[in-house]
Automatic annotation (TrEMBL):
This is Cupin type-2 domain-containing protein. InterPro entries: Cupin_2, RmlC-like_jellyroll, RmlC_Cupin_sf. Residues 53-101 form the Cupin type-2 domain. It comes from Candidatus Roizmanbacteria bacterium CG_4_10_14_0_8_um_filter_33_9.
Amino acid sequence: MNINKVIDTLKTKYPGKKIVLNSKENLTEILCEVDPTPLHPEKSTAISVIDMTEPHYHNNSTETYEVVKGNLTLLVDGKPQLLSVGHSATIYPGQIHSATGDETWVKVTSKLGWTKKDHILVEEKSL
């Protein structure tokens, strides 16, 4: 992933919005909080630039992934879905999901709004 280019593009498209890197050592996702949860707990919107996300689930929120640039392989409860620009998929509470792309831009809408507490990572051995 071209980290600096992605961050510069996000800053240009979404000035003043918080940008979050999933890891400093092994960066695989950059997230821009376009319409964050603290503004209204019932929903949130982010742009996620994905090479890979870790398997996880949410107890409370329903997420919709809509690809805005590139292609995404979304794995939901072990079933792969290939999404391209304009395609979307909905992920319901309790569904284990992960995604793989190549600097793929995804609009992620979450109802209830996304919280760190409701982002539960799944260990590989338990998949």
